[in-house]
Structures are given as structure tokens and as C-alpha cells.
Amino acid sequence: MGNNKEKKKDKSNVSGNSPLYRDIVQEKKTQLGRKEYEDLLLNQEIELVKLQEWVKANKLKVVVIFEGRDAAGKGGVIKTIAGSLNPRICRIVALGIPTEKEK
Fold first, then answer.
1. Average pLDDT for residues 80-98, to the nearest whole number?
2. Chain centroid to CA 75
3. What is the CA radius of gyration of the chain?
């Protein structure tokens, strides 16, 4: 049982109590209100559309890759991002499982 107490002490050191992290002050996280969240989201969508138009005007290409485990929420993020973009320009492609040679 003594080992469990020692492990707990080690974990508390990692959280910021050690001298290594003495100059870092952890900020308290606050939850955004619905209105504030929607305003921030709208501003980000506007910037994303501006980026899309800039890429189109300069005849460039952008590739964004989402990688993660099953049920990690990738689909919802992709739908949210692509929802504000022009579907004629923005293509979504699902990649298959890599073969042994590709790994």
C-alpha cells in the first residue's frame, strides 16, 4: 500500500507543483456562453471562406487530413467545417485503410 501513496505524490509533482513549472500559472477554464460561442464560430467561418477565396484566386491547393480512431468525432468536425465552404471547390475524400506496402 505504501507504493500507491508514492505514486500519488509523483502525479502531484507533474501537475505543476514541481520547481520546473514554478513560473507557469494555470489559467482557470471558463465555459463560453452560447451567444459568445456562436459569435466566435461565425467569425471563424468568415475567415475560412476568405481563405477559400484567396486559395481559389491564387490557384493554389490546400490539403487537410483528419486522422483519428473510430468514433472520435471526425465526421462532425468535417461536416461543420465543410458546411460553410463552397461545395464546388471543397472536396471531401475518405481514404481507405493503407495496405501493407503503404505502411
1. 85
2. 13
3. 22
